[in-house]
Structure formats: C-alpha cells, structure tokens
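Internal tracking record. Fields below are filled automatically when a chain is submitted to the structure queue. Please do not edit lines marked as system-generated. If the sequence contains nonstandard residues, flag them in the REMARKS field before resubmitting.
Queue: standard
Priority: normal
Entity type: single polypeptide chain
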Amino acid sequence: MRPFLFLGTRAEDDVAQQEYDAVLAGCGLRPDELVRVRLEQGPLGEVDLDEWSGVILGGGPFNVSDPDDVKSAAQRSAEADLRALAEQVLEADFPFLGACYGIGVLGGLRGGTVDRTFGEPIGALPVRLSEEGRQDPLFGVMPEEFAAYLGHKEAVARLPEGAVLLASTVTCPVHAFRLGQNVYATQFHPELDAVAICDRIDAYGSHGYYLPHERESLKAAAREAMVTEPVRLLGRFVELYART
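SYSTEM-GENERATED OUTPUT FOLLOWS
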C-alpha cells in the first residue's frame, strides 16, 4: 500500500505526538503507513501525489484569520505550503482530509470566506449531517447526528464555490464540506477522545480559547460527554482511498 501523508502544525511535542498517535489508531495504520511531517518545524517541500494514498491534515493553534502582523514565521510558512498543497490536491481531486485547521486551509479558496463569525468554545456538541452528508461516501458511515469534540475561533462564513455542505451544528453552519469528489474538511476533531481534549485544554490555556477559571469545568464537561462516532471517519477514509 502507498502510505498516507500526515501533516501537523503543533509545536508542543507531547500534544503533537498524541495527535499523531490518535490519527494512527483511528486509521488503523502502522507508522510506516502514515508518514508525518511537522510543518511548524520546517517547509513541506514538493509533494508528489503519486507517492501517496491520501493526505490528512491535523489541527493546531494557527488561524488563517489572524492579522498578518501577529503571525509567526512558522505560521506564515505553513500557510503558504498548505495553500499550495490545497491547490494541488484540488486540481487533481486527490484524497485529502483536513481536521479543524483543514477548514481554514480549504475554506478560503474558490471565493470562500473564513472569519470569526461562527467560533465555538471547547467542548462536545451534536453535529448533524445534511442530506448530502448522509449520501456522501465518507460521511455516510456516520449516524445522522453524533457528538463531536471541537473548539475553534474561526470557521467558514461562506462556502467555496462548488463546495458541498456535509454537516453543521446549531451554532456553526459549516462543520464539514467536500470539494470535488475526494477533498474534505471538518471543523470538529475526528481523532479526539476525552483524555486528549483535556490534555489540549491544558496545553492551550494561554491561547485565548477560554478564561483561566473555566479550565476545570471544561475538562469535567468533556469527560462527561459521550463522543464515540467521529473516529469512524478516519478508518473510512483509509478504506476508501488506500491504494497499491
């Protein structure tokens, strides 16, 4: 099998490793079948899509809607690399699944808009599939409504031209969409479990996702949530796109 390419942007080694391990487990792959590149550590370089089965992009603290003067050199480099890759995969209609940060990477293309209108606090919320989501080859394995962990400052306010809306929450109209037949983005995190989201709450306490006094209550609510379905998207992505 040709491996999948996993792209990360998290500077914290423990959180970055936990994210990769969770995606690896959810995909049901070995480490040699899910090759990781950490974009916060250096440039991506040229990607030959023929070498890969598909591309998976993890989440992270970068926001494309941040003012340019506050973006670090690492963020600007990652954004440039990911925009170029996004154009490449769209041109080829190549299998791509971007979780959380994938919304920022794909959502601003083809006339789309990503801004701070529909941000949501850290926690678990019910996500509901659209009619197109229920019929989609990837999202069709999901129940019509399921709980998912999320937490984001920015979201898609206007879909890219030609995008197909797949899922929403009550407070965020675009939680997943598809471009072409094989390029996907989700606002929620398919890889997260209760332990991992609590670790991220601790890791990103200074990033403005919540007020300091809210930390323990957010973690308690995350532990109580029943989030079991989103990880199925990872295994289904591999099932659909693994190739020799």
